[in-house]
Amino acid sequence: MTGDYVFQLMRKGTKWERRDMYFVGDDDGPKGRRRIGFANEGDADVLEEDRFFRVLLKYSYKHSLMGAANVTGEREGQGDNGIVSGHAYSILQVRRAGTTLGMGGVKLLQLRNPWGTFEWKGAWSDGSDEWKKHPGIASEVGYKETDDGTFWMEYKDFARTFNMVDICDRTTKDDLRLDVNEDDGCLGPMKGCVGGCGQFWCCCMGARVIYWGNQTSSETEKGAGCCVTG
């Protein structure tokens, strides 16, 4: 729908293989739905697990749309770890938290079940001991214990639990919008206009979006630099 590049990464053992989305055709039914598929074009781009995390980190930094699932070929069902197999989860954030000069830290992902329930129950889940042991990381990533389908998990657990990731490398050069602040009633649009103009002109947000915003690409990112922590 966005016109941007969409691709899929499937886990094969400990590696992740890229597959590109392509148009299959239109259904013959009355609704005329368009069908898509995923396949390799030529030599598949294969990512080792360490590079795979850096790629996820970079696309998260670029505000790309990402989702993950554990595809088993069976009907949807919740496992002991809280994750529903055969069900799609949104990837909200990818972070390398608790770093020192861009080094070390904990590799974390924030995901959300669109059902608003059935969350991860392992390490770094809501209410787990990891948050109590690392209050600095909790503050850095904005951790909140809420039963809303949103949860955090460590990358090593993510890579073992999910086997498919979809990424839309979204173009952000047109991401100029007016926040109307609906909760403020009739003063919302005025507040949004004043704040928006300040960000656009005084904070150079307009120039940054227009001239340095992301342009979608069919090439897989090489990975995040040392300064990208999410």
From TrEMBL:
Q: Which PROSITE patterns does the protein's record reference?
A: CALPAIN_CAT (PS50203)
GO molecular-function terms, A-Z: calcium-dependent cysteine-type endopeptidase activity; zinc ion binding
Question: Sorted alphabetically, which keywords does the UniProt record give?
Answer: Hydrolase, Metal-binding, Phosphoprotein, Protease, Repeat, Thiol protease, Zinc, Zinc-finger
State the SMART domains in the record: CysPc
GO CC entries: cytoplasm
Keyword Protease in record: yes
| Domain Calpain catalytic, chain residue ranges per copy | 74-171
Q: Which family is annotated?
A: Belongs to the peptidase C2 family.
In Swiss-Prot or TrEMBL terms, this protein is called: Calpain catalytic domain-containing protein
Gene source species = Micromonas commoda (strain RCC299 / NOUM17 / CCMP2709)
